[in-house]
Every structure is written in C-alpha cells, then in structure tokens.
Amino acid sequence: AGEGSGPGGSAAEDGGPPAPERVLFPPTFSVSEIKNKQRRHFMFLRWKQQQRKEKLAAKKKRRKEREALGDKAPPKAVPKTIENQRVYDETTVDPNDEEVAFDEATDEFAPYFNRQTVPKILITTSDRPRGRTVRFCEQLSTVIPNSHVYYRRGLALKRIIPQCIARDFTDLIVINEDRKIPNGLVLSHLPNGPTAHFRMSSVRLRKEIKRKGKEPTEHVPEVILNNFTTRLGHSVGRMFASLFPHDPQFVGRQVATFHNQRDYIFFRFHRYIFKSEKKVGIQELGPRFTLKLRSLQKGTFDSKFGEYEWIHKRREMDTSRRKFHL
C-alpha cells in the first residue's frame, strides 16, 4: 500500500485536505494480511503506538472524571490477575483454627518458636564447587546470623548430618550447582527434619545488583514472610523463619524478605533509609534469588528411603494456571 492510501496512510498528495495527526485504522485491520515484511513491521509499530495513545487518553479522561466527582467518585476497579483469581485451596490456613494451633505447638519447629533453641546454621555446597557458588555461600552467610560455611570435601550428606547434630547445628543448607551456576537448595531442619528441596534460579550476587547499598552489617535482620497461606506454605514459611534469631536489631535497619507469588519464592535483602520523618527509601544489599519448591520430605535428608510429605508433579498438578500450592 502507498503512503497516501490504505491503513495508516498519511496526508493526501494531490492537493487534498491534510490528514489528521491521529491515525485511524479500519475495524477489520489485520497486520498479518500485509505481505511485505518491512511494511508489516512498520504498520504493526504504528498500530501499537495508536493503541498506547488511546489507552493513555482514556486513563486521563477517567482521572479528570474522578477529580470532578471528588468524594462521590466510584471505587477504582481491581485489575484481574492470575494471583487474585487463584483457585481456592481447601488447605488454606485460618490463624484462629485450633487444629493449626495444635500442629504449631507440636511440630518440629516448636522448640524454636518456644525459644528453647537458638538457630545455628551450617551452609555447605555440592562437591567441588566453582567460584560463583562459593561467593554466593559466603554472601548468604552474611544474611543469616550465626551461620557457618564449610566445604564438602567429598563427604556424603548422611555423614555430615550426624556431625551437625553433635555440634548443635539446627539447620543445614546445601547449595547445588550445574555448569558453574547455583541451581538448587536443600534445607534440612535438624535433628528431626523436615527437609525441603528447592530449584534455584535468577541468582544475583552483590556486585551484579545495580544501585546496591553498602555491605550489610552484623545486626540481626527483620524477617518478612509474604503470602504463605496454605498448610504446605505455612510449613515452608516456618522453616524459613527458624533460620533467623527471634529478636531483630532494628538499629541495623536490615530486612530479609521471602515473598511467595504463584509458588515462586523471591528472596530480597534490603536496608531502610530514613530520608525524613515521612519518607523512607530502601537499598538492596543482595544477594537475591528465586526458589521453587520441588519436594518436602519428612525427617532429615534421605534420597533412597525418605518419606515425602509433598512432591511437585508437573503433569498432574500444573493443569491450571490459577492453581497454587503454597
């Protein structure tokens, strides 16, 4: 199609009236019908530009209408997302449920929440870790207080766990790697379990984070657990909480966040910056990573004879995009 005709044509060339600045496409316009690849791409960009302009104009119109109505303006519409349209899970936790309270009082994490034990964490790696995994472990140990990094040196986990229990470690974290990239995390609560297996992705070390703050201090951070709503998610959240001491040192202004969204657990480590009495900013300290639960096993790590409470089976469980398990 020429510039003066067809969808998206510009001003007429033979002395006619100038075309309006706003390009109007016919209702039956389809970019895929244009056979010239360059022309098709050009028209698609113009069509997208028009869509953005119409959307922005409608947004401005709605804002002016709301300002004119003032207090009488109707409430804003809530956008539809996969998260707020999730399928109801019958295992969703009610904080006032007596059964949930009884389980919390008798589960493996009860000694921690009753302040009978103090967290002491051992962080180790798979055999022969590469530099990136080693640096990630070292940075993770600066996030979790009272954690110690040791290297495997070929020891099997079944031999490491009894040594950890004998030395009063309460948790064992194992960072696995593939092709020099950390890709898995095993978290085992000692001495009686449970053990969680996570797939790890999107790992960013401190030097890879833009606009990062200064190095973290040794203050005990606050812990934020978001959106762990089901019985399974409640157990995983309690597992993460038991890694950190009870009483955060607020003077350090540091916070570790485990945010669950669509069964992906996003970890971030920030520091508050008080700009004034009303304005507060945050600095990301790092590292950051994303976890996806693969299985939850009763007891300590046992790959052959372990009894599993929950295993993620993609073909059976991921039949709906709006079904979540945590």
From TrEMBL:
Recorded GO MF terms: rRNA primary transcript binding
Record lineage: Eukaryota, Metazoa, Chordata, Craniata, Vertebrata
Biological process per Gene Ontology, one example term: maturation of 5.8S rRNA
Role of this protein: May be required for ribosome biogenesis.
Classification via InterPro entries: Brix, IMP4/RPF1
SUPFAM superfamilies attached to this UniProt entry: Class II aaRS ABD-related
Protein name: Ribosome production factor 1
Cellular compartments annotated: Nucleus, Nucleolus
One Gene Ontology CC term in the entry: preribosome, large subunit precursor
Annotated organism of origin: Jacana jacana (Wattled jacana)
Gene3D superfamilies membership: Probable brix-domain ribosomal biogenesis protein (3.40.50.10480)
